[in-house]
Every structure is written in structure tokens, then in C-alpha cells.
């Protein structure tokens, strides 16, 4: 049994054909960080000593995503990280089996969304009901990345979801009656299979479990959640009557059309892993060097302090994530291997004399002005030689909010 103290959900601001799509600077890691930081705002980074990332869209299968994930979340580099491949049932299993002080994050690219849950020693309870693991690979993807689809929706419904629900309802298997919500299947299919009106979820993958948990927690009623993927199914019972209520934070801006852009053909810029290594802790962890003698901040780190002239005496300190635009420009000139147009801004970080050059995100190019306020958020700046290069972009406050709220 798990106790959940904080839940957060995130969807990108871009929509296409009725679904959310990731921005060109987003991937599973950046979306997991977006949701994870929102969950940690209520719980605090000190409440977490282990992180689990569940997704079928991990940017790197070899090379690791853990360091970027921890740096973006603001957690120590010695935090235990588990990267788990899977969909909605895997996410629910990860939450059910998590020990206290664990952050479980889940992210999907199509439809795009992410969610995070903090498992602690208090909060509402989530108890395992049953699990069915069966094989019906109507969609298969091997190590070469090629996706094979067996296009038979009726087979998937009859021998997948329905057969697994029936198996779970057999005596001794745990499930009685109908679930309150089913994550991982289209709303049109699950509506007739649930007890009452199920929540409408914007995603179908691993993060669907977190979106469903958030919706059921907001109802503040006992409920049963089922998580499905092809023919596998996990069910859990949710009880919000005992313990402290969970914080539910939703970052769900209104969907807008993807901005028109063009990518100019050309050779990609190769990665320099030496430069990558030098900049990683400061750039991805969002930290500045502070002079030990006079306290002057420098980003990037300098050898000689411009405040007092001391040399080599620096320590890294976290930077504020709130900022105001000092100046901005929009690049329209085609750049090989880059998508144009895009906007750049020099932003002044709150409470410091540090100014940073960053791209804008979550808004159309050219829509940011001098004096606009916003926050710095982790984004994928580029992919160089197959390696995601992460940095920070400026997210203005005037993005249409949609659902950006906290429920206790």
C-alpha cells in the first residue's frame, strides 16, 4: 500500500488533431521534470530520496537520462534513479510498490503529457487490488526502433481490455464490479466499462495513470483505478477518507496550434563531450558560480572574479527561476539543421545581477516583449550527435492558463 501526498500533471501548450503534441524543445525528460518540480513544490525536495521515471519514449536507451532528470528536478546527484520502460500499468505498479520518499514520474510523447506522484508516509492511500499480465502485442517495437502495428481494434478490445477485466473479476483475483476509471484506453471505450462517469484523460501512456489519480483524488471519494496496456491490466483502490489530503497541481495550459516553422537542411553541429561535461552541472542544474571572497555570481563560471579579482575561488549555488525580459529578438534567417523562426531573450534573474541568454518556449516566436515576467524551465536545446543537449528556456507568464491550479 502506498500513501500519496502530492500529485501533479502537465501537458504541453501545443495541440494538433485534438491531441497534445510536444514542442520542438521537449522530450520525456523535460516533461517529467516539469511535472516533477510541480509535485515537489508541495512536498519539498527533502521529501524525496528516490526517483522513478516510467515511459516508452526515453530519449536515451544507452548513455542514461538520470543525470539530466536529477539536475532538472534540483535533487542531489546521489539520489537513486530507476528508469522503467512501460505504459499505464507499469506506472501504477511503480506507485504501488514505491517506498516512502519516492517521486514517481511518467511521461509520454503521443499524445503528449506527464505526471508525477510523491509517495510518502502520509496522504491518501492506494492499495493493490489485482494484476493481470498477458501478451497481445498489437503494437510492437524492437531495438531497431521500427514499430509494427496489427490494426485490429476489435481484437484489442475483446481479447485485450475486456478479457483482462474479466480475468481480474474471477474469484480470488481481487476486482469486484466495475472500476471508477481506466487509464491507458480511449475514453469512448472505457466509458461503458466504468462505474459512473470516468474522467476524460488527455493521454494514453504511462502518465495516464497519474492524470486518472489526480482526477479521482479531486473527487474525494473511494474509487478503483484500472491501468491497461494492450492485454495487461493493474487495478488499485484509492481511499481519500483517511490521512492528510494530497496536494494536486495541474499545469495544463490551453491548447494552441503549433506555430508555422521550417527546418533548413544541413549538417548537424557535432557534440563536444568535453564542453558538455564542463557546462553540465551549471547549465542543466541551473547553478551559478559564487566567489568565495566577495559573493559575486558568474554564469558561466569565470576563472577571475570580476568583482574582487580573486582567482579560482568559486562554489556553485542554485539560481532563481523567476526572471524578467531585459531585451529580446527573433531570428528569421535560415540556419542549417535548426528550425526558424525562433526567439531569444536576455533575461534578468530575480534578486540577482545575473542576466542569461535563453530561448523562449511555450509561446509563438516574436510574442515576448521587454519587461515580460516568467520562469526558467528545462528544455532540450538541441540534439548533437544523438545526444540531447539540455538547457533552460524562458516561459512567459502570459501563456493562456487553461488549468493551472492547486487543489488540496
UniProtKB/TrEMBL annotation:
What residue range is the signal peptide?
A: none
Q: Where is the ChsH2 C-terminal OB-fold domain?
A: 317-373
Annotated InterPro entries: ChsH2_C, NA-bd_OB-fold, Thioester_dehydratase-like, Thiolase-like
GO MF terms held by the record: acyltransferase activity, transferring groups other than amino-acyl groups; DNA binding
Sorted keywords for this record are: DNA-binding
Record the organism. Streptomyces rhizosphaericus
| TM stretches of this protein | none
> What is a single Pfam family found in this protein's UniProt entry?
OB_ChsH2_C
Q: Which domain of life does the protein's organism represent?
A: Bacteria
SUPFAM superfamilies (alphabetical): Nucleic acid-binding proteins, Thiolase-like
The protein here is known as DNA-binding protein
